[in-house]
Amino acid sequence: MEFKIKDALKSLSNIFSGSVFVFSREKILYSSEDKTPNISLNSHPIVKKLLESEMPQIITNPGVHPLCVNCAIFSKCSAKLEVAFPFFTQGKALNGGVCYNIGRGASINEDDLDDWLTLLKHFSNFLQYMVEEKERLLNEHLLKQQLSYLINLVPEAVAIIDGQGRIQNLNSPAQKVNLANCVGKNDVINEIQKAHGLKGQFRITILERQKPLELNIKTFGDRKRLTGAIVHTVEKLKVPKDTFPQKRNLLAFNKIIGGSPKLKKAIEIAEQVAPSDSTVLLRGESGTGKEMFAHAIHLLSPRRNENFITINCAAIPDNLLESELFGYEEGAFTGARKGGKKGKFELANNGTLFLDEIGDMPAALQAKLLRVLQEKKIERVGGTKSIPINTRIIAATHRNLEEMITEGTFRKDLFFRLNVIPIFIPPLRERPEDIKLLLNYYLKKYCILLKKDFKVFSREALEILLNYHWPGNIRELENTVEYLVNVESADEITPASLPTYIRFNQNANKKVGIKAALKTQKKKRLIAALEKHGYDTEGKKRAAKELGISLSTLYRWAKKYNVEI
Amino acid sequence: MDKKLTSQNIDSLYYGSIILGSGGGGKPDTLLRVLKSSVSKNNKISLIPITEVPDDSTVAAVGIIGSPELLNEDIPTGDEGIRALRLLEQILEKKIDFLVSPEGAGVNMLYPLLVAMKTGIPIIDGDGMGRAFPELQMTTFHIYGEISGAPMVLCNSRGDEKIFYSKDNFLLEIDTRQALNEYGGAGYFAGFAMTGREAKAAIVPETISFCEKLGTIFTKTSSYQEILKDIINVTKNSIYGSAIELFIGFVEGMGNVQTFKWQTITLRGTREYKQEEFKILIQNENLFAYRNNKVAAMVPDLIYLLDYQSGLPLNNNNLAPGMEVAVFGIPAPTLLKTKKALNVVGPQCFNYKSGYQPLERIHFSYYF
Fold first, then answer.
1. What part of B 275-314 touches A (C-beta under 8 Å)?
2. Per CATH, which fold does B3-205 belong to?
3. For chain B, which residues score pLDDT lower than 50?
4. What ipTM was predicted for this assembly?
5. A181-230, pLDDT tens digit by residue?
6. Residue A458's closest CA among A511, A487, A497, A500?
7. For B222-367, CATH number?
8. Residue among A242, A258, A434 whose CB faces B363 most closely
9. Do residue A35 and residue A168 come from a single domain?
């Protein structure tokens, strides 16, 4: 680019048998001369005047003009005309510009002076663009170098992807795990293109050397257009080893924290159905803890000492899902492992198979799954032999399956087969009384995992966190606490450590006003009174009495505030 | 919204206070009888959430100090604490608006309730320890509020009174212990005066209501397995954290470690723990637990015992060789586990030379 700017300046200077230079602040950046003259800009009175006035300057009578009196090259000056234009951005002068020194040989007359000035002005704009473009390229190059250095500092494998899905940079851990190959082979780019616009960040699990590899993907875009992405592995925190064996049945529901009536109801149903082999369908928004429920049901079942196998139907590319579920025989497809491979159904034989995000299962596989559930037999991909299986199925979804049936994207017969025992897990916003418990629970967890001293929330920070609406449910809350433990070095977590979107949300909440606050207060009081006295008729009567309202008002409040009674 | 404690709640608080006593804290049986007979006269106790205590109100702690076993010989009436409290009000030239328990466990769970009931002064739902500890400075009043116990008034049932002005809580502990020798080993005190605002930063909240909820489990007859499930349910949804069964076994031996102030309980495993051994080290409270010589729990986390047959909680004074007991751990509230708190109530304060190992770290997969 530097070469091109110099070329342009040379061509220009030839036209008017003079010289041109581009300056910025107190330096000449580019000049039409072969060697940039070592002259301070102070020696060019016209430039000095331009920088002071921020206006274009013209000397039509060099040697006579008052500005020429102090010029360092006064005696050597051979100019016929000297013109300088400042650089402008959005109407504001920059500390730079172009200076044209037009020689006596130039065929410029007074008549065509205006045309010449217009032309020189256009040249100035063009030169400004070239200079800025060069600076931009330099900055871009610097950022690339810094980014390359930075990504090599992190232990995670990182791949930087451009808008066309091409890998632009890989750090050394990425080269070790062959991330470029994983990304290409597993159609990750396709997943990125599909997900962009729907979710800015998501996780997928792919298979690399027959081992699942969890990848986090962050997409970037300009409006709806994907401009790039970052793919990286997810570091698993080292879990401390237990000193003593644990009784498996006691591990069931002690990790599901919360005492809200809706959650209690879900736990109650789960406990009741756990000992049987019935298929369970867990319904609930993303991040509500469906997998924890599934695991708890497994631990309370007679199958507790067998495998609990999980598969996320949304995270595995469609073309891999079938072989993941049912396994494959040797030579079933290119790259198939020698001796074949067991699928999740076989791995979960005599145990439990948790089919997460069942609503995302492709139609062809839905049919195959239905057949397996009916016949209790599977066939590996590329195989002909039927293998009997005894697996308990727990499925889960955040999607509205009934709606999907109407749309024809989910099979009705499969739905009925799965929906034997539906359990609805409430979102966090429907159990605000559990937020504090969950915050403290995860605070302890991450203080231990991250080997930090135990911390507490300050009263103010807790207040803000309790008022946040947690759209991502427990998963979001857990991630937030992990972040806070990471960033807070003191014993107490204060509002200053909270992510801005949570702090900002607090201000938004305040603006909602007293009416909304009263509504929340009433709802909390209603739930607390019902919790205390019970949900039977007697309990409701006592709760109404405590709240100082009639029984019919209690029913009206319950309806109004969406409290199930 | 305050809660009224009635005679129905007292039984629950009694059982809960034994658990929070972690083997010590004093056997609250005598106080249970006194409190129940007083509450039955339609007196109610107002239990106030800390959030509802006005910042400019005056809060003070009232309780028993010394050997609670001596209370069986000289049954408390609550009037001793009231005398101490009134004298404290005179010294402060202020009315006490709210009471707080210095130690929400054992006798100090029930005695402040007795004083609250007799005076009509509301008591805050919370305390200064979240469990039982042996020394005066081992309170969150001291750790987080830097509240001095002084001026402190110490009384006995014979009508004697002493006032202490040592601003340093460690010195105050030594001074009061010395005075207790003259009082025959036990006394009643009022002190730790603070504002409502200070109390908000300096107490472990919700411990009385937690104690009541926990104790309610034992007021219903049920099997060990049901009790276990209920304990887990109540504890996991509290500021403490899920209780964990650490061992089941017969009490094989109880004794003192010569030249040290430690007492020990040794258990021989039964049921799922056959061929295993469990040891508890005690200084007033159960402080360290070892399963087959490996640490299973340590202070400030709570270690307590249940009678396996009846399922009822046990104070160490109730133990006898040959009894089959279940040992449990409950994580202490996080307020007692911060670096600041561990300096005052952590294992090193009991001469343990290594760092604190949290219950949730030792049994990580159980908790997380």
1. 291, 294-296
2. CV3147-like fold (3.40.1610)
3. none
4. 0.92
5. 777 766 677 777 776 666 677 777 676 666 667 788 888 888 778 888 89
6. A497
7. 2.40.390.10
8. A242
9. no
